[in-house]
Amino acid sequence: MNVEQQTKNVIKSAITKYADKQNVSKIDTQVLIFAKDEKFTPGYKICYNFKPLEEVKFKDLLNVKIDLLNKEFFATPYIQTSLKGFARELGCSFNDVNVIIFTQTDDISVLKLYLFKGNDAKREIKISEITGGE
User: Fold this and answer.
1) What is the pLDDT of residue 133?
2) How far apart are CA 102 and CA 48, in angstroms?
3) CA distances from 110 to 26, 36, 77, 78 (A)
4) Can you give the pLDDT at residue 88?
5) For residue 111, with 0-12 CB atoms within 10 Å meaning exposed, 13-18 middle and 19 or more buried, which class applies?
6) Average pLDDT per run of 10 along the chain, which is 134 residues long?
7) Which is deepest, 14, 46, 97, 120, by most CB within 10 Å?
8) CA 54, 13, 68, 7 torsion-angle sign
9) Residue (of 54, 58, 68, 43) closest to 11 by Cα position
10) What is the domain count for the chain?
11) CB under 8 Å to 106, separation ≥6 — which residues?
């Protein structure tokens, strides 16, 4: 399984986990990726109806207690590079660049990713733009 498919599976699993946790629809549950600092260290929040409610750790998205395979270590540089590139593209600082990942179907058959500058949606992006894949 390639990195892009693994990433999709992790996000789908996280959406399912947090939708079930809050007893809401998967359509109403989103994952937000943001830059925590000037180094573009990735942060993650769970959103309900596109409102961030809970900051989570990478291992929480993976649904593990300990990241034994060190997936966060390998994923972080790709996500940092992507966030930096998005900030350059948008002409904004680290605290204005966000990516929201969501589905429009309860079976989570398709994930949508949108790049935001602050609260303004700028464009749809591909998962490969986050993972470094093609």
Assistant:
1) 59
2) 10
3) 12, 27, 25, 22
4) 97
5) middle
6) 83 94 95 96 96 93 81 86 96 96 92 96 94 66
7) 97
8) negative
9) 58
10) 1
11) 25, 26, 27
Query: Which residue range is the domain that position 93 belongs to?
Result: 3-131
DSSP state of 105: S
Which ranges in the chain belong to alpha helices (H)?
3-22, 58-62, 71-90, 128-131
Structure tokens at 41: 């260290």
CA–CA dist 129, 4 (Å, integer): 10
Residues 26/17, Cβ–Cβ less than 8 Å: no
Predicted TM-score (pTM) of this structure: 0.93
> Which residues make beta-bridge pairs with 123?
115
Sign of CA dihedral 108, 8, 122, 73: positive
Bridge partners, residue 97, by sequence:
117
Residue 32's contacts (CB-CB under 8 Å, 6 or more residues apart) are: 44, 45, 46, 47, 52, 98, 99, 100, 101
The C-alpha angle 127, 133, 94, rounded to 5 degrees, equals 60
